[in-house]
Amino acid sequence: MAFLDLASGVSLNIPQTPRALPRVMTLPGIISNCNLIGDGDSDGSSSVCHGRIIIVANMLPLHAQRDIETAKWRFILDEDSLLLQMKDGFPPETDVIYVGSLKVEIEACEQDAIAQRLMEDFKCLPTFLPRDIQEKFYHGFCKQQLWPLFHYMLPMFPNHGDRFDRNLWQAYVSANYIFSHKIMEIVNFENDFIWVHDYHLLVLPTMLRKLYNRVKLGFFLHSPFPSSEIYRTLPVRDEILRGLLNCDLIGFHTFDYARHFLSCCSRMLGLDYESKRGHIGLEYAGRTVYIKILPVGIHLGRLKTVLNLPSTHDKIKEIRKQFMGRKLILGVDDMDIFKGISLKLLAFERLLRQQRALRGKMVLVQIVNPARSSGKDVQEAKEETYSTARRINEIYGSRDYEPVVLIDRPVARYEKTAYYSVAECCIVNAVRDGMNLVPYKYIVCRQGSSHMDEATGIKMDSPPTSMLVVSEFVGCSPSLSGAIRVNPWDFDSVAETMNMAISMSDSEKQLRHEKHYRYVSSHDVAYWAGSFLQDLKRACQDHCDKLCWELGFGLSFRVLSLSPSFRKLHIDHVVSAYKRTNMRAIFLDYDGTLVPQSSTVGSPSCEVITILNALCNDPKNTVFIVSGRGRSSLNDWLAPCEKLGIAAEHGYFIRWDKTSDWESLAADLEWKEIVGPIMKLYTEATDGSYMEYKESALVWQHRDADPDFGSCQSKELLDHLENVLANEPAVVQRGQYIVEVKPQGVTKGLVAQKVLTLMVKNGKPPDFVMCIGDDRSDEDMFENILSSASSLSLAAAPEIFSCTVGPKPSKAKYYVDDAADVVRLLQRLATYSRPEPRA
């Protein structure tokens, strides 16, 4: 119950779920506190089909109805459900199981039997959320808090949107928790892929990743994802972000939604992303979380079947007769505050007012689907829609002409299809919508079919045409390049666009239609599902190659994924090797290794100085500080350590001990005259950034700048500098919050190589090499000490300890937790160091 405790501060009393279905799964790697191991079925794994797909959504793709006479429940598949249509995109032999809730409430005494029946007949596993949790979860947190926020609506006032309620959040986490344990009843984590859908289940991935670290997990968000300025107002923003990041693949309809998510990850969690061979990837605790951008499509076969129904043909004839001689514009929208129905009507009113010639010749048919949620806002939107339609009809209508036809009743599929087929223009005027497939359906219906054309009397040689007016705030807008995009708030522009759409030449309408139909027919729901599954398999292909380490508690849980050979450095192991060796080389980074990154002073503690002196005074030791800092700072801070070697500015300057002079690489630094003015330009243009001047390098820092703008500017600066320095002896590198330019051939790795080579040359071949660092620049040292040890023709292979600070992906073989661990390690080594005897 750790997730629930964290969500609310109080443990929620969740009723015991009904008896589980017969277990058919293996549970390798499941943590013991889940109480799910040991079902006694040793043959369970053999009965599971390999590579099943478990689709998890709030609602199952089923219709349920109780028979009045027998009082028994009847279930049929919902053929219009996206979840069901997705199967067309999977290989034919794929076994698909659905997990979700039913749209009806089932009595507790019936739940076991119905669960068994649904699993056997439909491969559907119902969750049966308790009534109080279902109410607070779906109608509370999902519909009153997440859904408005994701559609850019903030509860600025108590009477306009519900403010954050911790009890509703607790119910949301509880519902996700129940889903996770339902999935446990049927999943084989080793082989199955789990695909979670939409904002109802945003923290479910964290729970599944906790249950099995290598779960193969994808998520697709069907709603918009808001900009960081909106999203950051959510009190549980980090928990939801981390929930999504516990997936292997996250899908969005548009790049805008993905960009907003990535921006939130950058601003709130400090994560950066990059494009990897065309795929966007986020590095999160050693795992790559991939981002998929692909809008969902429609099921062409289903729609074409309806097109060819006799009832559809009859309705088409009826509509043509009803609106003969008039141009029909169609709108099909849910009744809610974001669909912009009233804005559409206001724009239509403006058109009739401005264009007298269109009165009596143009009709707007608005089909209103039932509202998916209730509340004051929805009721106000409905009242405004009706009053606006009534006003337009009273002012511009007549006895035989009704400008606005408002259809606010259940409309059969064949009737909608008929209206799509007849309408000369379709308008989607939403102020915010995740995807909206109405334009896609309209395009397919306008394409028609030979059977429909013949039945309805359309000339077979007349090419199909269509016109779309689409809000630029709708998810389908980017994929419909032939549509006329509008700002729904600009009534004059929308009115002008509607007039342009119906008055456009048939040849232009035909070209636009052909372009749209090619896209819609090739990017259907099967293409979308198949493409997502293919990318999910690719994202999971290296799961077995990594070791998993669990970090964090509750909804902050995450998995650190590391190389199998990577492990924590045990001090006793190092001390043992240290004691039995006679010639040792020790390389230490400075910031983040000897001194914590959080230190504002920069200088080492007295304890560190004492330890370094103890190590340096042992004649068996060669100790070097290898840092990116300037030599003056290091010289001042480490002055008490007379026998300590120092490599400053990544090795551009080297001093073997305090009595020796600084050596520097013979490098041409004239390029600094080119780089300086460019970096200064970017500094002036980027608030919060600054330049750092080194003797051998120039660094542009943007740690204190806006995360998004700083990252964007650093990429631009990198590209700019690489172009102007193409023929210069300099290297441009982009690190964490920095862009650095330094001479070619200057790396920490070369310092290690130079020291080890000199030791061999002086007849002191090392039999112990230890290298500790914490950042990217230290990776060169880790790699180089391994290659140098094998290339220096040593009589015996030395004991090598390459160690990074903090568990993270690295070329090092070991890690320690923090700088304090480094000091403890060095302290132990210092106690076994013997100072050189005095003469």
TrEMBL record:
GO terms for biological process: trehalose metabolic process. The keyword Mitochondrion does not apply. Keywords: Glycosyltransferase, Phosphoprotein, Transferase. It catalyses: D-glucose 6-phosphate + UDP-alpha-D-glucose = alpha,alpha-trehalose 6-phosphate + UDP + H(+). GO terms for molecular function: alpha,alpha-trehalose-phosphate synthase (UDP-forming) activity. In the C-terminal section; belongs to the trehalose phosphatase family. In the N-terminal section; belongs to the glycosyltransferase 20 family. The keyword DNA repair does not apply. Gene3D superfamilies: Glycogen Phosphorylase B (3.40.50.2000), HAD superfamily/HAD-like (3.40.50.1000). This is alpha,alpha-trehalose-phosphate synthase (UDP-forming). InterPro entries: Glyco_trans_20, HAD-like_sf, HAD-SF_hydro_IIB, HAD_sf, Trehalose_PPase. It is an enzyme of class 2 (transferase). Its EC number is 2.4.1.15.
